Amino acid sequence: MFRLSVLSISVLAMTAFVASTCIAATYPLPKPEDALIGEMQFVTTHYEDTLLDIGRKYGVGYEDMMAANPGVDPWLPGEGTHIIIPTQFILPAVPRVGIVVNIPEHRIYYFPKPRQGEAAVVQTFPVSIGKMDWKTPLGTTYIASKEMNPTWYPPESVRREHAADGDPLPKAVPAGKDNPLGNFKMRLGIPGGAYLIHGTNKPEGIGMDDTHGCIRMFPEDIEVFFKAVPLQTQVLIIDQPFKMGWSADQLFMEIHKPLLDSETDDNKNLTNLTRIVVSATAQHSALIDWNDAERIFQIPSGIPTPVKLQSQHRDANVLPHN
Asked: Which of these is catalytic: 198, 212, 313, 321?
């Protein structure tokens, strides 16, 4: 029922960026007690590169590229700028089933059922989500239908918004370059039928809050996703800006900027830090360095960062003060 409401780091050679696109980042599914997938990557720019181009090549959206590279001009990074590509992720703290959309992370995780004799994997893609007045709803739903080359029928509320901006929309937009749904549409089983996972004719917006509640993907990603995902696949839409998880004996923390008006509040509220630490360490005897954890928690870089463990320090696991 739907309710509204890694530490291995592989450094790429610091060579010039070559334009191309990345299709379907697929990783072996870690053991249940571990949560880290992927590896951080790095490039050095040519003068014509943009953060959007680099992000698209490596399957990373706009806001994640900006958060990982503070102070870098997204449109003119400049010749010879070293760029961090955040392609390492902590899996959300939910069952690894079907599709999981983590809204503040602007990212989809897909856990396909492995065929007999195959190892389990997870695929992940960047997405755009609903802007402030058109929030993507949270809850559990499913893939209700799939359609190639869809016609877009703008809701009356969207048509009114466009008309007020001097950009009137027709009642129907056929398939083609002007169709904002792109070439593939997957309808979610949310009451009203208005929420979709779809492609786009404006890929520069992927990784932002700029949709009317739908979940939007790069054209090359939605094509792979559309073909891979069966009808009736469960879709879980969550709000987890603060993630924590293990890789072997190392604990990592990954912090994203919370959504506006989110129930998760913000990354200055140490109650949120305490909650994720308690959850992540419940099955481990290791003690953490709270000063280090607080430092990481207050920097929403979106990069999984190792937390210092001080198992020999008797005061290391004392809870922080709010």
From this structure: 198
Distance from C-alpha of 315 to C-alpha of 317, rounded to nearest angstrom: 6
On average, the pLDDT of the chain sits at 84
Non-local (6+) Cβ contacts of 32 within 8 A are: none
For the segment 245-272, the average pLDDT, to the nearest whole number, is 81
Give the per-residue pLDDT at 320: 55
In this prediction the pTM is 0.85
Burial, 176: exposed, middle or buried (Cβ in 10 Å; 0-12, 13-18, 19+)? exposed
* Structure-token pair, residue 54: 């680099």
Confirm whether 214 is a catalytic residue.
yes
The architecture in CATH of the region 25-237 reads Beta Barrel (2.40)
Q: Are 138 and 213 in contact (CB under 8 A)?
A: no
Over residues 256-261, mean pLDDT:
81
- Parse the chain into domains and list their residue ranges: 25-237, 242-306
- Catalytic pick among 106, 212, 214, 256: 214
Question: Alpha-carbon torsion 36, 38, 41, 46, what sign?
Answer: negative
CA dist., res. 259 & res. 256, Å (int): 9
Is the confidence at residue 95, as pLDDT, over 90? Answer: yes
The answer to whether residue 321 is catalytic is no
pLDDT at position 178 is 85
